[in-house]
């Protein structure tokens, strides 16, 4: 089976339809159940807020959310599936309550990720590098790739049952979003909240661009480690601390020793710093040191940020290539020296002997030079964290880059008090420039005739007017050159809550659904996305974009490890939904031989027979059962398979209930006095509705899944159905049980629908309509059972009495198992080890009789 076709097979099975006139198939099949309902839901418009205003139970309230836009580059992973499962459950519950719901689908252009993918494809297929094409030619290739490959995300969202309003689908590079981005930049610049300068950024040599912190993987190294990196012909050593001596000027034989894991940055050192209270260096305060490579004089400065108990207590200061050093240098008025160029080679500031060398080649030459000059003081293993660019696998490094920065406070204090963890927001401003071709081109223009004069405008004509006013010269005489950079992807993503509703235009959607009712996302996006949405939302709309944030956990495997292809523990939603054979799972991906061997061993251990078909409903139910809050979510296939068995239990229960209806047409006989067991199951149903309502109101979905699992499995299937089966066989037209069964099926399926929409729809459609009740075309727009409407069924004392009976039955069953008392053994005949008094009294028969009476 081709992986790319799996989602399509789920939604395009030709044998499946929404025709429920045929008998319910004898066996539950996720593929059968989940094949046809989603296209029908979309065609009927059930997911549109306009439809919901027509519902008889409409509340007039609104509920709006936006999905964190997944990158258009690839497929949804299990973390996306968790987001969809939680959000869709909440959305469907609000819709069934009668609220006017808007849930907008969208995808992110993912500047760095998409450009990297297309560059790899161009090289693989045509042996063409990006810089061999013009910017326009390359962008045509990107749009072509997006049009061909970008639809996979939407297909997967449909397969997961996400009840999104597809007529409002957006893409962060579509005309409306692009206009919103330009407008936002112009307004922020006009308000003085965007500025252009040199600032420290994470730099990727492979991409030739600044990258966001989230694009940097911090890889811990225990000590000396050899790594093969893109563009380096030989392995590079990391995890080594080099000790270097800085001679004290005018004091022969006296020196200050510092340690560094990046000796290639030595040419950029502008000072050495020690703690002011470190007595080892008190006598050297205000003295100067000789640079070990150039011999230039450097100041020895004191700063309380230096940790005297780490290493020698002295640190080299390289403001151009270290965030901490940049802050220290700024405090002491030190000018930075940028010694590593954009392509990773050494700059002219390093001298002719290093200029043009790759920084890791220069590292070796610098080490040799230190030894020759007698200033090398040792080499030792040293644990460190290595920054790796997630998109290219190359090592990144901090460097000074010219670009546009945004003030993190955005001129308001409000956004800063919204997030409890404000360290990132208050730490440094946000560099929004990216040296890419794919993305929103920055609407800023350099006035060529003036020195470093930049103007901003929605169009070049508007920018020219600004330039003329600024310079006092006629606009026609000025030459404008547009900034070649694009904006950080997070800039457009931060506008998502209101740009998707039509901002900056005053649209009906914006007036009706903004601010959003809730933002639900992963905890890893709290600062990168949530914080930036808060800042831009407050500045551009004057309101918080949402008042409540729900953060879900990070998904890990059952051993608590982060999911990684190299570990072979990644759970792909497509594999879980439709199943996958082991060999097919091993062949998927582009791992190198070493990673493939590790992945193969792990997958053979975890999935010796591949992953069985579990279906969307089982996956959603399992993900929601872990809840949205708390620690990491440890997920295993066996857990999802257990939920699939739960689906099968519900299926078989409805087959029995529907058979009762078909044979007796007795669902709607007048309901006479209820037997205790009938009243008990209805009380359990009312309690379940109350627990589900509480779980949805508090957004603790694990409460909902637990309540539903307990009712369907332990109350209805294990007890009530077993109790009424013999009764219904003996009394074909007995009032009571058939009507109770219908209520359990109808209410139970509506309670289940937000979590298992496909199974609930398939089974609910086969129930006859309740006489006198307003018909609903779909369970997705049927009223969600409220606790108040079922309160008259709730009898806590009756449930307590039945709990005692069930405990007695369980004890009897345990005795029967212990003493091997079975129906095949004659009454009064005991198994081995049964005391003789028990034989005389016929405990086996009495136990069976008591259990039967308890059930009836």
UniProtKB/TrEMBL annotation:
Domain Methionyl/Valyl/Leucyl/Isoleucyl-tRNA synthetase anticodon-binding, which positions? 678-826
EC number(s) per entry: 6.1.1.9
The record's SUPFAM superfamilies line, in alphabetical order, gives:
Anticodon-binding domain of a subclass of class I aminoacyl-tRNA synthetases, Nucleotidylyl transferase, ValRS/IleRS/LeuRS editing domain
Disordered as annotated region, ranges? 823-856
Q: Give the Pfam families listed for this entry.
A: Anticodon_1 (PF08264), tRNA-synt_1 (PF00133)
Provide the reaction this enzyme catalyses: tRNA(Val) + L-valine + ATP = L-valyl-tRNA(Val) + AMP + diphosphate
Top-level lineage group: Eukaryota
What GO terms are given for molecular function? aminoacyl-tRNA deacylase activity; ATP binding; valine-tRNA ligase activity
The protein's enzyme class:
ligase
Chief localisation class = mitochondrion
Q: Which InterPro entries does the record cross-reference, listed alphabetically? A: aa-tRNA-synth_I_CS (IPR001412), aa-tRNA-synth_Ia (IPR002300), Anticodon_Ia_Val (IPR033705), M/V/L/I-tRNA-synth_anticd-bd (IPR013155), Rossmann-like_a/b/a_fold (IPR014729), tRNAsynth_Ia_anticodon-bd (IPR009080), Val/Leu/Ile-tRNA-synth_edit (IPR009008), Valyl-tRNA_ligase (IPR002303)
Chain ranges of the Aminoacyl-tRNA synthetase class Ia domain:
37-219, 428-635
BP-aspect Gene Ontology terms: valyl-tRNA aminoacylation
Keyword annotations for this protein, in alphabetical order, are: Aminoacyl-tRNA synthetase, ATP-binding, Ligase, Mitochondrion, Nucleotide-binding, Protein biosynthesis, Transit peptide
Compartment(s) where it occurs, according to its Swiss-Prot or TrEMBL record: Mitochondrion
What the protein does comes down to: Catalyzes the attachment of valine to tRNA(Val) in a two-step reaction: valine is first activated by ATP to form Val-AMP and then transferred to the acceptor end of tRNA(Val).
Q: Which family does it belong to?
A: Belongs to the class-I aminoacyl-tRNA synthetase family.
- Protein name, UniProt field: Valine--tRNA ligase, mitochondrial
From what organism does this protein derive?
Equus asinus asinus
Its gene name is VARS2
């Amino acid at each position: 089976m081709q992986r790319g076709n799996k989602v399509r097979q789920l939604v395009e099975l030709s044998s499946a339809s929404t025709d429920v006139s045929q008998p319910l198939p004898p066996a539950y099949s996720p593929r059968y159940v989940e094949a046809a309902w989603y296209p029908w839901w979309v065609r009927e418009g059930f997911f549109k807020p306009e439809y919901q205003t027509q519902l008889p139970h409409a509340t007039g309230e609104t509920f709006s959310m936006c999905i964190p836009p997944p990158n258009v580059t690839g497929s949804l992973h299990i973390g996306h599936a968790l987001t969809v499962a939680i959000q869709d459950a909440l959305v469907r519950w609000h819709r069934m309550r009668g609220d006017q719901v808007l849930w907008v689908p969208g995808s992110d252009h993912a500047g760095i990720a998409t450009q990297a993918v297309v560059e790899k494809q161009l090289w693989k297929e045509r042996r063409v590098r990006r810089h061999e094409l013009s910017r326009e030619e390359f962008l045509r290739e990107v749009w072509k790739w997006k049009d061909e490959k970008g639809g996979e995300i939407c297909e997967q969202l449909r397969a997961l049952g996400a009840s999104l309003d597809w007529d409002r689908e957006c893409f962060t590079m579509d005309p409306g979003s692009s206009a919103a981005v330009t407008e936002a930049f112009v307004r922020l610049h006009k308000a003085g909240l965007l500025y252009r300068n040199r600032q420290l950024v994470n730099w990727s040599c492979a991409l030739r661009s600044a990258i966001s912190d989230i694009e940097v993987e911090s890889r811990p190294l225990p000590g000396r480690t050899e790594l093969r990196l893109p563009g380096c012909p030989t392995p590079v050593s990391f995890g080594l601390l080099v000790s270097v001596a800085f001679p004290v000027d005018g004091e022969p034989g006296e020196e200050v020793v510092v340690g560094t894991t990046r000796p290639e940055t030595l040419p950029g050192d502008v000072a050495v710093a020690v703690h002011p209270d470190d007595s080892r260096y008190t006598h050297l305060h205000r003295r100067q040191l000789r640079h070990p490579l150039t011999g230039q004089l450097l100041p020895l400065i004191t700063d309380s940020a230096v940790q005297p108990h780490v290493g020698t207590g002295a640190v080299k200061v390289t403001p151009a290539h270290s965030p901490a050093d940049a802050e220290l240098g700024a405090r002491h008025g030190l000018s930075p020296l940028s010694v590593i160029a954009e392509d990773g080679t050494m700059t002219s500031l390093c001298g002719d002997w290093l200029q043009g060398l790759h920084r890791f080649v220069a590292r070796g030459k610098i080490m040799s030079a230190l030894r020759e000059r007698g200033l090398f003081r040792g080499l030792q293993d040293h644990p460190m964290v290595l920054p790796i660019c997630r998109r290219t696998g190359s090592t990144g490094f901090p460097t000074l880059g010219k670009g546009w920065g945004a003030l993190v406070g955005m001129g308001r204090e409000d956004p800063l008090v919204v997030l409890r963890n404000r360290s990132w927001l208050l730490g440094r401003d946000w560099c929004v420039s990216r040296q890419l071709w794919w993305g929103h081109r920055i609407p800023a223009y350099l006035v060529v005739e003036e020195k470093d004069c930049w103007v901003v405008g929605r169009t070049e004509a508007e920018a020219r007017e600004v330039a003329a006013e600024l310079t006092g010269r006629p606009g026609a005489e000025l030459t404008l050159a547009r900034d070649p950079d694009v904006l950080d992807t997070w800039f457009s993503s931060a506008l998502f809550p209101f740009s998707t509703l039509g901002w900056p235009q005053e649209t009906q959607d914006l007036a009706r659904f903004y601010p959003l009712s809730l933002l639900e996302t992963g905890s890893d996006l709290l600062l990168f996305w949530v914080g930036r949405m808060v800042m831009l939302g407050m500045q551009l709309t004057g309101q918080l974009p949402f008042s409540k944030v729900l953060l879900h956990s990070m998904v890990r495997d059952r051993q608590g490890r982060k999911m990684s292809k190299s570990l072979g523990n990644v759970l792909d939603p497509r594999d879980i939904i439709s199943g996958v054979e082991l060999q097919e799972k091993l062949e998927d991906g582009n791992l190198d031989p070493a990673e493939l061997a590790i992945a193969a061993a792990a997958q053979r251990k975890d999935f010796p027979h591949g992953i069985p078909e579990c279906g969307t409903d089982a996956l959603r139910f399992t993900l929601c059962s872990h809840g949205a809050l708390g620690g990491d979510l440890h997920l295993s296939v066996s857990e999802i398979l257990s939920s699939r068995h739960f689906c099968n239990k519900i299926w078989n229960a409805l087959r029995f209930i529907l058979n009762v209806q078909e044979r007796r047409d007795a669902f709607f006989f007048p309901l006479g006095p209820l037997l205790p067991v009938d009243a008990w199951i209805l009380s359990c149903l009312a309690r379940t509705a109350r627990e589900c309502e509480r779980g949805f109101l508090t957004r603790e979905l694990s409460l909902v899944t637990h309540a539903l699992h307990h009712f369907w499995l332990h109350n209805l299937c294990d007890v009530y159905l077993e109790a009424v089966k013999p009764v219904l066989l003996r009394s074909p037209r007995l009032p009571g049980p058939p009507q109770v069964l219908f209520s359990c099926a109808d209410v139970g399926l509506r309670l289940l629908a937000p979590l298992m929409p496909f199974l609930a729809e398939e089974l609910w459609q086969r129930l006859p309509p309740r006489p006198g009740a307003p018909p609903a075309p779909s369970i997705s727009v049927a009223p969600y059972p409220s606790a108040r409407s079922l309160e008259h069924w709730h009898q806590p004392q009756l449930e307590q009495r039945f709990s005692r009976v069930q405990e007695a039955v369980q004890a009897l069953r345990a005795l029967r198992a212990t003493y091997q008392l079975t129906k095949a053994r004659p009454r009064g005949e005991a198994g081995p080890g049964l005391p003789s008094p028990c034989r005389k009294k016929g405990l086996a028969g009495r136990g069976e009789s008591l259990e039967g009476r308890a059930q009836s």
